[in-house]
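I am still learning, so can you show me any protein sequence you like together with the matching structure tokens, please?
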Amino acid sequence: MKLLKLLSVILVFQSAFSYTEAQSLQTPGNNQVNLSLIKSEDYSMTWYALKDTSKIEMAKIDTKILKTGTRINVTTTVKMKNMPDWTDETAVAFPGLAPVKHSSFNTQREMLLDFGKKNRVTGYYLDKIQNKKTEISEETNGKFFDSNFYPQLIRWLPLKENYTVEIALFDYNPKSAIGVIKAYITGTRKGTLNNKPVWIVSATDDISEKKAISTYYMDVDTRDVLKQEIDMGTRKMVMERL
């Protein structure tokens, strides 16, 4: 009888642990996002490369979020000096946050992803440098967010001290990981920036093979991103809100 009771306790513990693990993976329809934090907004940031003690301005980044009753559109435009704009646009369903479409256009490539078909992502990838077009038809399993959407998604999670979580993503890049991967919030703590209370959130992802660490400084009340630091080993960058 004692052995049976012990086995029962172990099984209950394993079941609870598995449930906790499953809940920690954020997916459309199964996440901790506070939908009331999502709103239409426009904001701009300046992107700098850091070298020793110098900050070298690289570009201005304009972000526009348009929220309707059924959809959220996030458009990001990178404005570099003496170069055409780089534009990325992501559309996700609201309130479920499942991806709908993702387009990306810059001087090096074009990409269009359509998430409309069940368990399949279709579209194309055009490498402008090599003049090579690849048709995309990727079979997928499970639910996921668009990889271009997750930096915004982080803002709307229930941040608290030592908060960590995993986020299921789909990313397409012919030179690295393709398919369903993950992003990771590895640490959260309270701090201050310019005398303003902020959440300081560290994140990485499988896109960079966990080699790039992004640190977000978010206004505690509005969740506005005031600053983002990117550490890629020898390369360091920072984006600051205008």
Residues 33 and 121 are 24 Å apart (CA to CA). The longest strand covers residues 179-193.
